Amino acid sequence: MIDDAPIKPSFSLISPDIYNYQDSKNQPLKLGIMASGNGSNFEVIAQAIAEGKINAKIQVLIYNNPDAKAAARAEKWGVEAILLNHRDCKNRKKFDSKVAQTLQQYDVEFVIMAGWMRLVTQVLIDAFPNRMINIHPSLLPSFKGVQAVEQAIAAKVKITGCSVHLVSLEVDSGEILIQAAVPVLPDDTSETLHARIQVQEHRILPMAISLLSQR
Ligand code: GRF
User: What pLDDT, on a 0 to 100 scale, did the predictor assign at position 215?
Assistant: First the structure.
């Protein structure tokens, strides 16, 4: 019997140096969220904060595609949305330096990549060392990079899932914080499977942020 519930996390699953980053307990964790597209993960974070499930405040949303639906979601939640179009930058480092500066201007303590479809450089990692997490639609370390759901279907695995992990220079390779398993059904398409993976993403990403916000 396959259980698609997330593996229940405990504090011991999160390295001490990740959550011991601020002395002031009980202060809302100041989040910067980065998104490239639909923004459903942004939405569940905003919802969880509004419901008092996460002690945090979203300082800013950064998005890199002018038509990203995440921007309208931010507006709905009263969160400032800043478009930083990577096409306007000469190279990845220049772009990341703009991103880092913007996050710092908004006094961001912790960065959430919620569907950020850009490779990051050391410039951004150095600005927020151990302070950036990403949600990826596979059970890492399997199926890193783009089209993780398609990769899982092509590999004919019976179980895939999603992972919240720290961001490191090598794509989808930082320390894994929380994962949830999702069965692959015989008639799954990438759309049907991704939809069920997203149900789990919407559980484990707020769960990870909640744990981090408790420091
Ligand atoms: C998610 O499936 C996430 O794992 C991947 O991009 C997707 C973003 O979804 N990195 P959304 O924009 O939050 O709806």
Answer: 73
